[in-house]
Amino acid sequence: MDKVKAIMFDLDDTLLDRDKAVEIMFSVVMEKCYKNAGITEPLYNEMLGEFKKYDNRGFGNKTVLFNSLFERFPPVVRIPECEFREFWDSNFHKCFSIDTERINIAAKIKKHVKTAIITNGSVRSQRGKIEHTGLDKMFEVIIISDEVGIQKPDPKIFELALNKLDVLPENALFVGDRINKDILGCQSAGIRGIWFNPNNFKNETDIKPFAEIHNFTEVLSYIS
């Protein structure tokens, strides 16, 4: 295997636990819209399930999400539909945190190789998450799709990162959780793709990652 000189990472559900952030965001919605509504724990969990279903791991339409929640569970205070997007964008990035283990792993990796983040999404949203968690101080290169006008799986966004890092594709690895965007995209650019799959999802595509890991600490084995 060619020497690894750079490791690049996806953001949501790789460096950061998006599912946990959605749960915290739901608590923000509950405080805003259902305060003193006498919500029992079983009902809370049912509402959270609805919230996660319509969020659809970030692919869900936020207008549909809020309207569906409010229609099924009428709120005490209803956010106007014209404010759904702003409410989400103003609060969601503050719901993210990064655990000590991942901070330590990222610090160890940075001592040995160059590092980058490549993420799809809006500049406001993704930059907000990165700065709120302090990741902006830990990675040499940060590329956000809306900022550069290219998004994964387009190999050009990976090539842009390689150019900024001054590293050849055969000397780079990319770690991401989505087969169709992360692994397909990076491997189309000649970069070895490591599928981060902590939930043991089945790979139902024809895309074959270079490696599959289930725990973030496994990334360290590629810099020894």
Task: Outline the secondary-structure elements.
Elements: E1 6-9, H1 18-33, H2 41-55, H3 62-72, H4 84-91, H5 100-112, E2 114-119, H6 123-133, E3 141-144, H7 145-148, H8 155-165, E4 172-176, H9 179-188, E5 192-196, E6 211-213
Parallel strand pairs: 1-2, 1-4, 2-3, 4-5, 5-6
Key phrases:
single chain; 224 residues; alpha/beta; 2 domains; 6-stranded parallel sheet; 12% strand; elongated
Describe this structure in words.
31% of the residues are buried. The mean pLDDT is 96. The chain is of the alpha/beta class. 44% of the residues lie in helices and 12% in strands. The longest helix is centred in the N-terminal third of the chain and has 16 residues, at 18-33. Helix 1 crosses helix 2 (41-55) and helix 2 packs antiparallel against helix 3. The chain has 2 domains: 6-16 and 98-222, Rossmann fold (3-Layer(aba) Sandwich); 18-95, no CATH class. A 6-stranded parallel β-sheet has the order 3-2-1-4-5-6, sandwiched between helices. Helix 9 links the parallel strand 4 and strand 5 (192-196).
Given the helix and strand composition, which structural class is it? alpha/beta
Number of domains: 2
What integer value in Å does the Rg equal?
19 Å
Quaternary organisation of the protein chains? single chain
Number of beta-strand segments:
6
Report the biggest beta sheet as strand number plus sense, adding barrel if it closes.
6 strands, parallel
* Helix proportion range: 40-55%
Ends distance: 12 Å
The number of distinct helices, counting runs of at least 4 residues, comes to 9
CATH topology-level name of the largest domain = Rossmann fold
CATH architecture label name of the largest domain: 3-Layer(aba) Sandwich
- Order of strands across the main sheet: 3-2-1-4-5-6
Shape: elongated
